[in-house]
Amino acid sequence: MSAPTRPKAKSTNVSDGAPAGEPSDHSAADNTQYLTFLLDRELFAIGILAIKEIIGYGDVTVVPLMPEFIRGVINLRGSVVPVIDLAARFRRKPAPTTKRTCVIIVEIGSEGARHVVGVIVDAVNEVLDIPASEIEPAPEFGAKIRTDFIRGLGKVNGRFVILLEMDHVLSIEEMSTLASAKMEAEIPSDNAGSGR
């Protein structure tokens, strides 16, 4: 296995190397392929069919009154894309940015619609084939993240890789609710200071 390199300025489609935005011919094998990445020294993976591209971290515009795990938004070829700090989403210390920090652009489903979201990871590793026979069910307890975030545990070279259920991790409804709650908590009510 060769050491991962930082993505070039020109992003690529993970599954076949075609430039982002161009159609690709996905084979049945794509269903067993996962992009692995590091987060706080742990190995996670996302099915490549959910991934649109990988870009270097940078030019994130902060949006006021958002939960800590929403780092901000980026302009991706004219589209506004929210960027989620995956470590903070898992209720861990927010990830520090380094030369290897990347943003994985994923597409998720919500109420019949598709949404594009960026997730910050410490470093992208490699694409692995993990057949269904090598995937264990998500643990019911003992995991360091919510069990509904975990699709399963893939066995690779004698170790487990946490396969993420991105539609749950990036639930638009849940994130909207959390953002609204934070805004309500930080905006003073009309009666604030009336006792002076």
How would you sum up this structure, described in words?
There is one protein chain. With 196 residues, this protein is mostly beta strands. The chain has one domain: CheA-289, Domain 4 (OB fold (Dihydrolipoamide Acetyltransferase, E2P)), CATH 2.40.50.180. 12% of the residues lie in helices and 37% in strands. It has 3 helices and 11 strands; from the N terminus they run E-E-E-E-E-H-E-E-E-E-E-E-H-H. The chain has helices at residues 86-89, 166-169, 172-186, and strands at residues 33-39, 42-47, 51-56, 70-76, 79-85, 102-110, 113-121, 123-129, 135-136, 150-156, 159-164. The strands form 2 sheets. The chain has a 6-stranded mixed sheet, with no helix packed on it. The protein has a 5-stranded mixed sheet with strand order 3-6-7-5-4. The longest helix has 15 residues, at 172-186. It is globular and about 45 Å long. The relative contact order is 0.18.
